[in-house]
Design brief:
binds zinc ion; four-stranded antiparallel β-sheet; elongated; N-terminal domain of MutM-like DNA repair proteins; single chain; alpha+beta; 6 helices
Length: 275
């Protein structure tokens, strides 16, 4: 699933291509992709308008229009957003097409069909469950070691589960959490409330490093992810633990191990991460 670095890369690559082009048509081929409106309402809000800014909050892409409306897109498991010439053959699993001036299409293609599109007016964040309750952005100034410590304090859940909780830290998922914990030398199953101050400082720094490197390499393509130009990411070549079960740890040479935590695979080094 696209995490913060992937959604940020999509935001940056789409921005170059879709801003300030009037919206001339909309085709919804999978109506359930629209959560809080129907095609008619969407057309009323979007036709003749254009996108003026793309923002990101956690894993949400927020497309601001030259009106009071915003389109909020969440790609979930397998969603991809691509910009192609309007006469490009429509891929199987295309959920929605937005036709832009100069014969360009913004398309959401989604094999698993979990991706969602919401239409918001004003700053009505509360209308989207999950958006208004998001935790701090890992690269913003208010994401401090003290903030991270407060999120972990007293929690009996594994540190990994707390980091995946979007209400604690926005935008992290399985890949970047595993990578952050490895760099910080912390076992993913360690009880969150038992991390020491030193460990929390290392974890804070590792999260920021991993997210920055992920963005610098235009995200990680493990399965489906491509950016707004259809290109794969580059960070998969630099992963130290995620998806590397049995391969040697880049730090100590010990084979990387995998365990299930809360139903999800966690990759870690038994030596570096003290298990
Ligand atoms: Zn190691």
């Amino acid at each position: 699933m696209p995490e913060l670095p992937e959604v940020e890369t999509i935001r940056r690559t789409l921005k170059e291509r879709i801003l300030y082009r009037p919206i001339q048509g909309i085709d919804v081929s999978y109506p359930k992709v629209l959560r809080n409106c129907d095609q008619g309402q969407l057309e009323k809000a979007l036709l003749g308008r254009c996108f003026t800014r793309l923002d990101r909050r956690g894993k949400y892409l927020v497309c601001c229009l030259d009106s009071e409306y915003r389109l909020v897109i969440h790609l979930r498991m397998t969603g991809r957003l691509v910009v192609v010439p309007i006469d490009t053959a429509v891929e199987k699993h295309t959920s929605i097409r937005i036709h832009l001036q100069e014969d360009l299409d913004l398309r959401l293609v989604d094999q698993r069909k979990f991706a969602t599109v919401d239409l918001l007016s004003g700053r009505d964040w509360g209308a989207i469950r999950g958006l208004e309750s998001l935790g701090k952005e890992p690269l913003e100034g208010d994401f401090t070691p003290g903030y991270l410590a407060a999120q972990l304090a007293g929690r009996r859940a594994p540190v990994k589960s707390v980091l995946l909780d979007q209400r604690r830290v926005a935008g992290l998922g399985n890949i970047y959490v595993d990578e952050s914990l490895h760099r910080a030398g912390i076992f993913p199953g360690k009880t969150a409330g038992e991390l020491t101050e030193k460990e929390i400082e290392r974890l804070h720094q590792s999260i920021q490093e991993v997210i920055k490197e992920g963005i610098a390499h235009r995200g990680t393509t493990f399965r489906d992810y491509v950016d707004g130009e259809g290109r794969q990411g580059g960070f998969q070549a630099l992963l130290r633990v995620y998806g590397r079960e049995g391969e040697p740890c880049t730090t100590c040479g010990e084979p990387i191990a995998r365990i299930k935590l809360a139903g999800r695979s966690s990759f870690f080094c038994p030596r570096c991460q003290g298990k």
